[in-house]
Amino acid sequence: MPREFDQHKFNDDLLLEQADRDVAARRYPTVFHALDHLELREYFQLFDPSAIRAKRRSRIAGFFAICLGCMALMLAATEHLVDPASDTLPAFVVKNLPASVVSLLPNVSRSTSLATASSLAAISSIAIAGMGLLFARNKRQWLFQRLMTERIRQFHFQTLVFRLPDISASLQDDQARDDFKAKRQEWFEAFKKRMDGKLDSEFAEIVRDDPQVDAWLHEERGEPTEIKESQHLAPLFRAYRELRIMHQIDYANCKLVDDQKLFSGSPPRQAAVLRNAGYACIIVLVVIHFLILIGAVSQALFWTQFRSELSVIVMIVAFTALGVQTLEQGLQPERETERYQQYNIAIRAIRERYDNARSQADKIRVMQEMERAAFDEMRNFMMTFSKARFVM
After folding, report:
1. Beta-carbon neighbour count of residue 5 at 10 Å?
2. Cα 22 to Cα 27: distance, rounded to the nearest angstrom
3. CA separation for the pair 254, 240 (Å, rounded)
4. How many CA atoms, within 13 angstroms, populate the side-chain half-sphere of residue 200?
5. Annotated domain spans of the chain
6. Residue 237 and residue 244: Cα distance in Å, rounded?
7. What is the DSSP letter of 327?
8. What tens digit of pLDDT does each residue of 63-101 get?
9. Please, what is the Cα angle at 138 between 133 and 139, to 5 degrees?
10. Which of 12, 181, 239, 304 lies 20 to 30 angstroms, CA to CA, from 166?
11. What are the CA-CA distances from residue 148 to residues 95, 166, 195 (Å)?
């Protein structure tokens, strides 16, 4: 199926698709075995699709929690509009209800119906957002699995940084290449043993308030990698620039694009839509209060006839603004935008230093900076959304 022209291609840095592997094999034939890791790709695919689904379910649950909370407040606000003299369900409602339902509700009043509906909506909102029903489990699954996918990605590129002596040795012949793959599989098994069944403790370690959280997934623990200058490694440095540095710049650029969609996954677009919705509520409130002021001063006919209705509209608009603010707290679009802007600036500076490096040793130091920056960006992401709530 052809890709949409505006659809960003994610995860091609791991060469998930055969087309990506074919291109990499042509561009970097001598070091392709270091870039191509079948077991890592298969392991990544165990987590990435379910992380996407869990994120979607989490956001939907949060959205419904906000809608139900707003509905509860709005129904409670309209309850006093019910005329006590005719406190029954409207005829058009009774007419459209099944006969079996009408027979069960012969004496249900409007006020009772509104109060019941308001209570049910409030309880449902609290259960979803406040108590975590539907929302918390999906958010936990999303963050844990996203943590796993990013640590897999970091393992792959940290291998290119910290295992350069092994990669250099693997360039000698086919046997050396097979030996490298066998050792890489041992490193990968150690990584999986560290992560499997321990995502909760790994997540707690990542989000704790300590700037010295360990970013490294190899035994070297961030120690400088020492190698002899070799032209045979030049393709690997070019591949790292394309697949790691440039890919992360493209990713940050993608997240900063305003796609002009009403329901968008772009943080800048989300921020703009929510900001405009908040401004619209303020404008509506100003207009209504202006009308109320005119009516109160002039005792106009509409003031005496629609005084209660205008008060209810004011409350409904205010509750809508509260819902918009709560949605913003859950999605965190402003903070997301700021985070991607800072990451974009940092990676562009890293690219400049990488391109201006005078030796492979200098490039290796910049690569380590890149891996630290990628880890810190992931950590900020986890800390932001571990605290995000859809609670009114």
Report:
1. 5
2. 9
3. 20
4. 2
5. 22-90+109-387
6. 10
7. H
8. 888 888 888 887 777 765 555 555 455 554 445 545 654
9. 100
10. 12
11. 55, 25, 8
